Amino acid sequence: MSSLIQESLHINLRVLEFFLLYTPGEPTNFQKLRSSILFFALMFHVPVLSGINLIVGKHDNPMKLVDNSFGFVGLSCYIAKLWPLIGNRSKIKVCINYLDKPIVELRENQKGILQACSKICRRNSNIFLYYMIISVTGFVTKPFLFEERGFPVDVWLPTSLKDRLDVYWGFYIYVSIGVAYPVIASGVLDPLIPSLLCLATGHLKVLNDNLEHLDEYSSEENGSKDSNLYKNIQKCIKHHIEILNFVYNHQKCFSLMVFSQFLGSPMILCFTCWNVSMDCFFNFSFTVIMEQGSQRRLPLSGWYPFNTDKSPAFELVYIYQILTTWIGGMGNISMDTFISGIIMAISSQLSILNNALKNITKNNELVRCVFHYRIIIKFSDEVIYLFNTCLTTQFIVGVIIVCISMFQMSLVPVLSFQFVAMLLYQMCILLEIFLWCFYGNEVMLKSDQLTQAAYMSDWTKSPNHFKQNLLFFMTRTQFPLKLYASGYFTLSLETFKAIVKSSWSYFAVLNQVHSRQTQ
């Protein structure tokens, strides 16, 4: 193994080699068989027994249900992520060592570029591995230190082992190894995948350096400059092809691992956040999971064709509602910020156009600015056409949500969990509307500055036809660009102020009606 991979991924490859998930040389049949046996012996028993326990076990404590679900999902994700190291070992080994090939001859400054990338890889790998070791240590020792005699993950057993200490401790160690093995292996595999891309980025920086100084480097070499220039161009093309081949092999080898991580991460994050929110360290818990009298409540009320008051139907529906709400919330946040980003891009393009207009002196430069302005207008119309329903719905529903949330806040004690939750939700709704209105207002202001920017150009020394064309353009820009929702709501701060005022007015009416009914 040459110096670049050895220096960058030393700890990753050593740990994987210790776990029999990687071999530096060509793996023999015996090594493949040994790795497969160890993989199945140490990884499959915990997820299988944990899954059986989730199906047939009793879950009276929601905290334990969350812990078990978290462990089952996480370990299942690790199995899908680590198995390609067994089944696709040869191709992964080739991909890992691909960048150690003599792809290009490096100069001293270019060696520094790759050394910087190698340093980043080592730093990320060390931090991630230490973090995973600390996490798995706490996860494995928690049942032993803070709970009754149990296991790191609740598993199904045909008989209880709590009274048989010799068997209990043996099985406890076996389950702990089954948890620690995939977690630590994943702790070195996860940074290895982006580290390879980081090294590929270093090679792209080297390629950029060769292209930027192509003429200079060709002059420094012996022989004809034109001949050296042609050879260096060929080397750059070959270098680029090698980088593309590496990226293709990387995607082919690690796509399943990345997909399994993306698939399992939302559920793991959901269970983790739920677990953290129910911890007594924060001195509060979810009111929806607390028992009111003898009846438990779901986060959202709804009709189901079965009884949701009994286990495990209650827990399954609870998890289903949490997941769907979380996915819907993430999708809503993504869409809101995406639209805000698009409007921000329009505002940025108008800033660029303003700067260009201040420096035009020729008619062809003015023509480019006119075409730029037409593209901005066309793009703005396309954005409004695509997201018109989304913008209109958000404005209308936003008024209702803000009004109702303020009304609900007035019915509960200040600083209670319900009050804080509704306050945060109201702030989110107002923030997403504010972002649209703020950047829409910026579009109006910057488009209104186009006339002044054109006037500030050096038009006094230009010919008459340039002045005439500039005057036509200034006449058009006197009508600022405005973004509308359904042709009625303008994306501006005035609209945001109107939404807040309307919400407050409706809240005042609701509060007054409620006060009369309670008197």
Notes on the protein architecture:
- α7 (89-96) crosses α11 (225-277) and α10 (214-220) crosses α11.
- It is flat, with a radius of gyration of 31 Å.
- By secondary structure, it is an all-alpha fold.
- The termini are far apart.
- It is built from 17 helices and two strands.
- A hairpin with a 3-residue loop joins β1 and β2.
- The protein has helices at 3-8, 10-18, 29-43, 45-56, 62-82, 84-87, 89-96, 108-146, 165-212, 214-220, 225-277, 313-357, 363-409, 417-448, 450-455, 464-477, 493-518; strands at 484-485, 489-490.
- It folds into two domains: 3-210 and 255-282, no CATH class; 313-518, no CATH class.
- Strands 1-2 form a two-stranded antiparallel sheet.
The largest β sheet comes out as: 2 strands, antiparallel
Poorly predicted sequence stretches spanning 5 or more consecutive residues: 278-294
Strand content: under 5%
Which structural class do the helices and strands define? mainly alpha
